Amino acid sequence: MTATSQYLIDTYRASQHATPMPPPPGRDDMAVLRAARSYQQFRAVLDGGEASHPWRAALRRLLTRPHPC
Asked: What is the pTM of this model?
């Protein structure tokens, strides 16, 4: 059974029993990824390193990558 079909069953069941609807699948995925990245940066600072920023890291990769002629 997929997450979508389980969500539809749970939504139907919630409407029949007058209970709150469940959150849709994947709603909080980006928030979880952001929290994991923030925790990784936090641990880097505690270990004596510096917190890397994703935009700075991407810019550094673009500027230091050897370009073919």
From this structure: 0.50
